[in-house]
Structures are given as C-alpha cells and as structure tokens.
Amino acid sequence: MKSNQPIPFPLTSTSTLSSKVDRHAFSVVSFDEQEEDQKLYWRSKTPHERLEAVELTRQLLYGYDPATARLQRVFEVAQRT
User: Fold this and answer.
1) Half-sphere exposure of 64 (CA within 13 A, CB side)
2) Rounded Cα–Cα distance for residues 13 and 61 (Å)
3) pTM, full prediction
C-alpha cells in the first residue's frame, strides 16, 4: 500500500443496512474489563494492522483531502548583495 493513498475500508450503502439491532451482540462490562479486552485485541493484531488502524483514525479525525495530501512547497526570494 502506498503511503500517499487513503486506507480503504468497506463502505456499505444504506439500503443494505438492517434497521434492527442485535441485542445479543452487546454486553455491559466495567471499564477495567473493557480496558483488558482492548489490550488483548490490539496485541492479537500485527504491527502493520495497528498502524493501518492509527492511519484510518487519523484520516477520520483530521480529514483526508488528496489534493492537499502532499507537502506544500515554500519559495523564498533571496537577493544577492
């Protein structure tokens, strides 16, 4: 994967989403249990998968615009004296 391209993630159309919520998919846990579960989850991922998740989070939080994804060039006019 090239570093200048966004990380692809599956997009679903709203027509394919179900309006019903599976109540069995959720559970109520304490913050300590949640923290431990998250640690176990991320430790099971490869370093590459972790970096992809960080990059996706960065793009979602700060936005991704391919037109401005490159470094800006700054020119300065210097005079010889």
Assistant:
1) 13
2) 22
3) 0.47
